[in-house]
Structure formats: structure tokens, C-alpha cells
Amino acid sequence: MKRNQIIIVLGVAIVIAVGIIAYFSTRGTGGSLLAGVGGGGMEVEIKPTDLVHGSANAPVTIVEYASMTCPHCAAFATGTLPELKKEYIDTGKVRLVFREYPLDGAARLASAAARCFEGEAALNFIDLLFRNQTGPQGWIQDFDGDKQMSQQDIEEGMARMGRMAGMGREQIIACTRDPAKLALVDANWNEGQTRYNVASTPTFLINGNLHRGEISFASMKAEIDPLLADK
Q1: Where do the structural domains in the chain lie, given as residue ranges?
Q2: Which residue, 7, 56, 155, 180, has most beta carbons within 10 Å?
Q3: Angle, helices 169-176/151-165, rounded to nearest 10 degrees
Q4: Does 59 sit behind a cis peptide bond, omega within 30 degrees of 0 on the bond before it?
Q5: pTM surpassing 0.70?
């Protein structure tokens, strides 16, 4: 075999090997990898099952891990998120990826109920849950985190929220019991803990950089703007 032919064969072999590695690195997920930006940034995989606000081409990606019964997560959803959407998400600068990290059984079942919906409808239902944690229509009513809600309590709460979202009682309750939806919620919880060092909610990965705890819009802006300046 001539020298040029050998070089060509070796080149093809390298290309094939790289392709195989890339295939198996994302096999079964269909996901993409987001390299961490900034000091200590982690590499974060964005998955087809993720619930996403904003453009896939946004230069900054924020992954939020939240529990449906977490009051600090509700405060972010009702206070910080509307401003974040207006200034950064709707303008194509940021995409926000929502992932479930239930801290209790009620949050786990509510997360499964949210998976009854798809895409924007699922995000709207999650927003509905956060806006109605407590109060006259509150789905967790007087739950204070120190006691366990019964299965019936949770299902009655989901039935109320389902009606507000246009879904029937039987369907929404069936979703809270759906093994596939519960498995997806559990997988997000497990991955958050073991891969991304999530231990509480809310936790944010801002271009791979970890931020634990509730965050104001001003503080979020202070973290986002330097990342945009690098683009």
C-alpha cells in the first residue's frame, strides 16, 4: 500500500473512532453538552426531557433544580423569573432549563402531575403550582414541611390545580401515579444529587457555575452580564 493510501486509511479510521465516541457519549439521551463557563464551571448535559424557557441558541443557560413545595422556589418563580424572562429569556440571551428536585412526597407527586403536560403547557402548570402553593386555592394548604400530606390531600390539591389548567380530575390524579412520570422525576433528582452536587432548592447552574439558594433578579443579573460580555 502506498504512503498516501496509508495516510487516507488512518484518517478515515480516526474520523470513525471519533464518531463512535461521540455517539456513545450521548446514546440514549439525545442530549447536548454545555461546557462550563467561568472558574470551576461544570459541564452540563441538556436533555430532550428538559423543560425549557427560551432559545436553544442563547449564549447563557441556567439550569434550575426546584421542589414544588419549596417556598423559596415559589418566590423565584413569582418574583425573579418574570423579570428574567422580560430582560434575558424573551430577548434570546438566556435559556432557563427547569428540572425537578422534590424534597418530599408531595413535591414528587406534583412533579409527576406536571409531566402530564408538554412543553410550554408543562411550564405553565409548574408556574400555577408555585403561584398557588398556599392561600384560598392553595394545593398544599397549611402544609408547613413538618408533617406529611396524605395521598388524598395531594390528589385533592392536584385535582384543584388540574381544573384550573383545564385537565380533568381522573387524568391529573392518574398522572401522579404514573410509574414512567415518577421514574423521570426520580431520575432528575438522582442526577442532580450525584452529578451536579444539588442538595437543596432552589439550586442553579449558570453556564455550569453552581449557585445554591434563592436569588434576586439583581444578583442573577450580576452573574449573567459578565457571561454575556464574553460572547
Answers
A1: 1-30, 32-229
A2: 155
A3: 130
A4: no
A5: yes
